[in-house]
Amino acid sequence: MEALEAHFVTRPGNVVEQKRRREVIRxxxxxxxxxxxxxxxxxxxxxxxxxxxxxxVSGLLEDLRETISDYQMAQQTATYKxxxxxxxxxxxxxxxxxxxAQRAEYRHGDRRGCLKGTRTAxxxxxxxxxxxxxxPPVYWLNGLAGTGKSTITQTIAERIFVDGQLGASFFCSRDxxxxxxxxxxxxxxxxxxxRRYTEVRSILVPLVRSDPAIVDESLYNQxxxxxxxxxxxxxxxxxxxxxxxxxxxxxxxxxxxxxxLGQFVSVIPKVKFFLTGRPEPRIRRGFGLPLLAEVxxxxxxxxxxxxxxDSDIQLFFRRSFLEIADRQGGLDGWPTKEQLNILCERAAxxxxxxxxxxxxxxxxxxxxxxxxxxxxxxxxxxxxEGMTKFKPNTTLDSLYASIxxxxxxxxxxxxxxxxxxxxxxxxxxxxPLSPSAIGxxxxxxxxxxxxxxxxxxxxxxxxxxxxxxxxxFHKSSPDFIVDPTRCINERFRVSPPSHHxxxxxxxxxxxxxxxxxxxxxxxxxxxxxxxxxxxxxxxxYIDSGLQYACKSWYKHLVDQRTARTPEITSALHRFLENKxxxxxxxxxxxxxxxxxxxxxxxxxxxxxxxxxxxxxNDCFRFVTGFFEVIEESAPHIYHxxxxxxxxxxIVRKLYGPHA
Length: 659
Known about the structure:
It is a single chain. 58% of the residues lie in helices and 5% in strands. By secondary structure, the protein is mainly alpha-helical. Residues 42-53 and 379-394 have low confidence and may be disordered.
């Protein structure tokens, strides 16, 4: 230890680096002291006996690994940041202009890795695969909902980043439009690779500069030009991670991404792809394609030996309850071994069940002892999660039904419509909404919305700040709530055909009430880029509810039956007749002008009422005819687009006085 310290600390390095090294030496010294005390403990045969009952020693070994990993993580992060700084301005400009998904990389968001000491077998197996290039280049981590795929993926990404092997990562999510869109995956990965490797950057930047439209091409061309050609030419050895492919919108019978990957993976033998996804039909068919099947290793999480998974889940419960007991006090001997065993039995190998259980018990407004007793006493459901035939008291559905029943009970049935409306907003929103935005859109007081959501916080990612977005903590909960064969209590069931129109009307009514000319108080005749505080102005004058309404209202116009509803037709006509250009103004300052084309294109296809269709068609012509003006300058919608539009234009006749 002393020799290590002498060599380690005296090596050259800046102040931060020296401080980081001293902290590593301190932690290693603590671990060394603990190991020494174990080996000298009286009445035992020393360290060997502890290894026979190895939980304590394995914990120390995990501490040792974590200490070294933390140091390497800091080193790799510093190296990555330094590499990013060296990217010249011209190259950075090209990379920044490539359309990418936001917060899709493993370092972003609030994703957590595996609890220390859990999932060690599968993690070690995957890590060995990443290091052995004689093994197949593709790895599929296959698992049912709630088995811990994303948590394992996060940990693997962290580990291989530490090892210097991670080239790029993409965490798909149905909660975010860009992260569920297949056409964002390859451009996002390409940018990460270019920032990581100089060799890739020197190939990719000139390619994109000469052909900017490449990012809008087919998935085949995207992968060929943005990923395969730069990696093939540079001969880079790296690992690419893509999590939750099943959460992407994909109309193909066999996964479109996997179909393309199968055609190219043999061309870049030094590149490995780690992929995860539920075994849905299109995912299974994708991995079953001949070109991919022969080069893919697969690990099936829900087929892991039950005793091993149960041991990990029990460790998770023990450590979580210990944290609760330390924080709350007065919980000596809690929970009992019997209670812990019952919870582990009910989890039945699903980590998401364990997480939801802990969240339910650790409700800030309730005594954890009572919460646990209440949970264990609730009747069991007979529903099943997907095709997995767990016992009635070990399904995700039974937990979700119990949480909803406990939260809302039978005392106030008059609140059921509000409950369903709020749940519908959380589940069906195109992008996650905050409690305040939900209240604004649905016409409820925020003081009513937040407590309602708080009562089911074990199903949600919910923060204390009412302006922060809320979303399901796992997709299996919304799957349950919208499925009438699983959510058998219709009091809590959300029906998309009913709740999409409710959200659409809420968006239209909000825009009809609040949109106005020059909502951000911009100076006359400026382009958006000339307003230095544009972002601050949009936050100040356009709250999150109105932003959502302007960008996403049409995404709730899900079918022609919805469009024919008199309430919707009337609200939509009023909107186009009275607020249309004010809406374009908001989209312009938000950098979302393209949403106008998509919205109006859909409206003209779905509507049938002649006056509204005629108006919508004219609005569509206005947007496509003056798109560059609208995109670049909100004020010039009035100063340039309107005056230059045809005299016969309905839009000009309606909004000409604002020019």
